[in-house]
Write a structure and sequence with these properties.
It is a single chain. The chain has 71 residues and is α+β, with helices and mostly antiparallel strands. The chain has one domain: Heat Shock Protein 90 (2-Layer Sandwich), CATH 3.30.565. The protein has 1 helix and 3 strands. It has a 3-stranded antiparallel sheet, covered by helices on one side. Strand 2 and strand 3 form a beta hairpin. The chain starts with a strand and ends with a strand.
């Protein structure tokens, strides 16, 4: 088991299923000038799927997010 914990804003519960989609950004105001292309989690999910692992998200909206990869 591998977990990655971030004490950022987390994501809204309504967006939890979308965060692994390519080019998805939860912050609508983000653009290229502020960084990011919305590919990181999609690439990570693709690698996880290829190895037949599972990923889950433990999210506390407004406080933190934790990605858990089960091998």
């Amino acid at each position: 088991m591998l977990s990655v914990y971030n004490t950022g804003k987390g994501v809204k519960d309504s967006e939890k299923d979308k965060i692994f989609e390519r080019f998805y950004r939860s912050d609508a105001s983000r653009n290229r000038a502020t960084g990011g292309y919305g590919l990181g989690l999609a690439i990570a999910k693709s690698i996880i799927d290829k190895h037949k692992f599972k990923v889950s998200v433990d999210n506390i909206e407004g406080k933190s997010i934790c990605f858990i990869v089960t091998m």
